[in-house]
Write a structure and sequence with these properties.
77% helix; 15 helices; 313 residues; mainly alpha
Amino acid sequence: METFLSAFQAVLEVIIVIAIGYYLSYRGWFNNNTADLYAQIVLNLSLPFSILVNMNLFFTKEDLLNSSKGLIVPFLSILLAYLMGYLLSMLFNIKKERRGLFSGIFSLSNSIFIGLPMSQALFGEIATPYTLLYYMANTTIWWTLGIYGISTDVQKEREKLWKNIRKIFNPPFFGFLFGIFLIFLDIKIPKFIFESFKLIGNLTIPLSLFYVGIIIHEMGFKKFNIEKDTILTFLGRFIISPALVILLSLIIPLPKLMRDVFIIMSAMPAMVNSAIVARIYDGDYEFAVKMITYTTILSIIVMPFLMVLIRII
């Protein structure tokens, strides 16, 4: 029961903020232009600062050097899940303008917005470094392969390979690379600058969740139907992704706590940023919003079962 309550509270925080965004849209405070503004702010300003701050808060040069073995499992599991997602999208004839987005949602998780508070609630503060390791792999793949896949979903962009590749070099990815650069050179950001970056970075979660609430209001609940793409997404998020981590940990032995945190992180809900990125790149952002909402709610049920599973394996 304690495990269930911890998981429930971590997810409930997210749902409440989304609900507030929905209500304020209903009241006319937010509209479609607000959603576009929030998407631009998150993608181009607050998220790069958030990534940079988190890298500097939770990692040292020694952590990065010593974590190379541990990083292999999340990197491989996510890449394998992405490949399986793309193959399933072709096998089940998912429409072409959704395949890259589907593959990203299928394989990549909300490892920081929900993942970090969830892991701390379930395992305690001791799990934070392992959570951030998974976050590092998740972020690297999302802002490279994930972005490339979403950008190629749009028919008019499909033949412009170099233009799609250039989208990989986006502000959040540069924030990630700059964070690693500072860590390896042991450069400390002056405190007043760091705190300013942190304030801006802290906008990421509320604005992203408000964005989801706005889009839910725009779409209306009639569009929240269950289709084969939805079932396949559940399969990827909650079964295939954690199963791959478990299988790889049998081949590449990990400390038990690291393995357990990786399993939980792999089964987090769909990334909130998937809807924002899809909107920026003219992708199927409504599908992304549906998957964010469904997987966030369903994770309340899934997390306790996963916690029981990792205790017996």
